[in-house]
Write a structure and sequence with these properties.
Elements lengths: L1 E2 L2 E5 L7 H14 L3 E4 L4 H14 L2 E3 L7 E3 L13 E4 L3 H4 L13 E2 L1 H11 L8 E9 L8 E7 L2 H10 L1 E2 L1 H7 L5 E6 L21 E5 L4 E5 L4 H4 L2 H17 L2 E3 L2 E6 L5 E7 L6 H5 L9 E6 L3 E5 L5 E4 L4 E5 L9 H6 L5 E3 L2 E2 L5 E2 L10 E2 L5 E2 L13 E5 L16 E9 L9 E3 L3 H9 L2 E3 L11 E3 L12 H14 L6 E4 L19 H11 L6 E3 L2 E3 L16 H5 L3 H19 L5 H16 L18
Helix pairs in contact: 2-5, 11-12, 11-16, 15-16
Amino acid sequence: MVAGGWTIHGVQPNGVPEQVLQFIYQWADICQPQDIHIMDGSEEEDAMLKKMMVEQGVLIPLPKYQNCYLARTDPKDVARTEARTVISTKNKIDTHPVTDTYSGKLGHWISPEDLDKKVQSLFPGCMTGRTMYVIPFSMGPIGSHLSRIGVELTDSAYVSVCMRIMTRVGRQVLNVLGEGQFVRGVHSVGAPLKPGEHSALWPCNPEKVMIAHKPETNEIISFGSGYGGNSLLGKKCFSLRLGSCMARKEGWMAEHMLVSGVTMPNGQKKYITAAFPSCCGKTNLAMLQPRLPGYKVTVVGDDIAWLRPDNQGQLRAINPENGFFGVAPGTNFQSNPYAMAAIFKDTIFSNVALTPDGGVWWEGMGPKPKNCIDWRGKPWRPSSSTPAAHPNSRFCTPLVNCPVLDPAWEDPEGVPVSAIFFGGRRPSGVPLVYQSISWEHGVFMGAAVKSEATAAAEFKGKQIMHDPFSMRPFFGYNFGDYLRHWLSIGKKLKNPPPIFMVNWFRRGHDGGLLWPGFGDNIRVLEWALLRAAGQLPASGRCVGWVPTHDGLDVSGLGDHPDMESLLSTPTRFWREEAAEIRSYFESEIGDSLPTEMWRQLDKLDRRIEVFSDYNVEEDEYHSYEPIG
């Protein structure tokens, strides 16, 4: 059908709300696509798009599995581009703290005027020769009062089929939307085609990448990258950056957190949320296979949580996503058997290796194949000096594939949260687990999260970086105001869930990991949930509450872990840590930091000195209450 001067496929204009049509036509006039396809979300449409991409060479079928495909990106388009990810507000301080020494690591600002100029220079004619796909999608169960709707315009069929996995896409979303509000997303790979010109297999424009967010008008504008976090606008762009801004206005929270249910031996189920930086085991924990008898873990979501206090003051969580966008390397039947059971059906893999039998392989998956085709499309052997799969290679898989999907994963009211966890990769000094003294102390713990940099961003090496709340790349507004919002949410909760810090990655003097991790992490969750229920004592330390010497169940572990080292809080380390946190607060956040955070840091300094001569049995300090 021809409408608005454009040939339209898929859902026809009479099935699209007028405000959405105006949005489509506005950008079509700017981007000048050859035609428009409005997605209906059907299986037939999905099969058609995949068939087209196979014929074009964009997707490679994987006959070893059921309806699975491999995509290879341009080597210059493999990760989030934080330096080119910007928030546009009238005042810079609304986007991020303003200090004399601000590094840019808590967000990048662009003025509305400069953004308009960038858009005017990048977008006119950018979709020439390509189809504009219109993706109506819901973040969260369609129709839930906790959910929000978006519409993404893109010239990438790859983005379209991945968005169908990661969100709820199609006619029903348009029907529910009606004339309601929606987030407007525009994405282009930035590679227009001249008449007769063939497209690159992975079109992109890495020199001109820009991912911009306009919180005041709920708009996302992305150019030049086809990589997941930059182009699947429902993920970090909507669910976290714009989501956090919407949450602040509406009294809820948008967080980089898993949501899982933990069923205990007595049959009682508790839900937890946990925030870890990318590549720090979040998906593995979300789908944990417990190594303690009587426990079962079910997954609501592995990456994003939207949290809201209900009318009774109970914090509740939904997973706004519909799929997994997991890091492949390191995923195997030992580390995450449930993920492995989920990913070989209806999945799109990106930048993994292709095996001769039509399957995939990545480092850490299992025995190396004798030969394969690496992520760049070149022959690879075990003797090769480069990895077969990119360190940030991914699987994009429907949640419904997960064999331990929680029955309440689409509950429109969300699930009740009993405990909140933060964590990161800290090779020294930070205990295996400790509990906050109060909600305010827990917010401080989240603000002070640090971790080794990972492959999901463009940073290289193993430098320890601040990653507050594991949200550092995803804040949609000033981090100081974000902390105030967390503090204010605590006041709305009748019984705020206790907050814990975990560190699976502490190393001994020989460089080896001290904790077995994976399925044995249930032992830490057990301790935390029993603490949350008031059923276990704990030892007071400078960081808060840690397990007593026999507080963690380590029965059945072949090699008894060095619990003294795992739970130690070396005075010298924590003096340096506290000083470094103070320097960070001063240099990066400055006057934007809430007074309560300075107060919590001062209390940490005092507790460090209280425990500086601590060298007696922990049991003597069970009744000691740290300064809080």
